[in-house]
Amino acid sequence: MSKRKVFQFLEDLSRNNSKEWMDKNRSRYEEVKSILVEEFDPILERLKEFDPRIVQPTARKCLSRINNNLMFHPDRPTYKDHMGLAFGYGKGLADFYVHLGVSEQLIAGGLWHPSSEKLKLLRQEIDYEGERLDTLLKRPEFADHFIIYEEDMLKGTPKGYSSDHDHIYLLRMKSLAAYRPITREDFYSEAFSDMVVESYKAVVPLLDFANTAIQEA
C-alpha cells in the first residue's frame, strides 16, 4: 500500500474537519491505519529486540487517537491533523514517539509535561546527576540529530535552586524531551525503518534518565 495515502488523507481531513466528512471517509481512515501498522509492526519488533521493556504488543496498540479531546479543549478541531505512534514502558513514563502530520513530521522522545510531583523528582535528579545528563545530551549520535524542546521553560529559577546552578538551563525545563525533524520523503524512503531504530537507540538514554528520576518516589 502507498504510504503517500497517509498524508493525502490527513490533508483532506484538515480541509474537511467534521464528523460528517469522517463518517463518509471512514474506510480511508482505516486504510491509513493499516498502512501504518504494516510499516511499524516490523519496526516495533526491531525495537523490542533491542529493548524488551517496550510494552506495546503491536503497532496498532501504539497508534494515538485521531480525535481531539474537546471536553478540555473545546476550541480545537474535531480531529487532529496528524497520526502519532507512541512506544514505551507504561502509562506516565517517558516514551518514544513518531509524529506524521500535515505540516510537521518528527521523531521524539522524553517526558512531556509531567505532573508537578514528577517534575519535582526530575529536577532533583538533574540537581544530583546533571553532569551525567549533560554528557548524554552531547553524545554525537544524539546531538547531531535531536533538538531539546525549550517550550514553556521557566523564565525565573525553580524554587529551591540557585540561579547560578551549573545546570540551571536543564532545571528550568517543564519537560525533558527532544525531537528529530524528518520529512515526508524520509517516511517514504526504504531507509525509514533504520532511521526510526537508530533514533530510538540514540534517545533511549534520555528516557532512562527521566524514568529513573520519576520512579524513585
What's this, in brief?
The chain has helices spanning 4-15, 19-24, 26-50, 116-138, 140-143, 168-171, 184-188, 192-214; strands at 82-88, 95-101, 105-111, 147-148, 176-181. By secondary structure, it is of the alpha+beta class.
What can you tell me about this protein's structure?
This protein has helices at 4-15, 19-24, 26-50, 116-138, 140-143, 168-171, 184-188, 192-214; strands at 82-88, 95-101, 105-111, 147-148, 176-181. It is an alpha+beta fold and 217 residues long. A 5-stranded antiparallel sheet has the order 1-2-3-5-4. The chain is globular, with a radius of gyration of 19 Å.
What topology emerges from the helices and strands here?
Blueprint: H1 4-15, H2 19-24, H3 26-50, E1 82-88, E2 95-101, E3 105-111, H4 116-138, H5 140-143, E4 147-148, H6 168-171, E5 176-181, H7 184-188, H8 192-214
Antiparallel strand pairs: 1-2, 2-3, 3-5, 4-5
Helix pairs in contact: 3-8, 4-8
- How many helices? The count is 8
CATH architecture: 2-Layer Sandwich
Number of domains: 1
**Which sequence of strands runs across the widest sheet?**
1-2-3-5-4
Question: What's the story with the biggest beta sheet?
Answer: 5 strands, antiparallel
**Total strands:** 5
Instruction: Specify the CATH class.
Output: Alpha Beta
**Poorly predicted spans:** none
Amino- and carboxy-terminal Cα gap: 46 Å
Assign the structural class, choosing from mainly alpha, mainly beta, alpha/beta, alpha+beta, or little secondary structure. alpha+beta
Report helical residue fraction. Answer: 40-55%
Report mean pLDDT, rounded to a whole number.
94
Radius of gyration: 19 Å
CATH topology: BirA Bifunctional Protein, domain 2
Strand content: 5-15%
Encode the helix/strand succession as letters: HHHEEEHHEHEHH
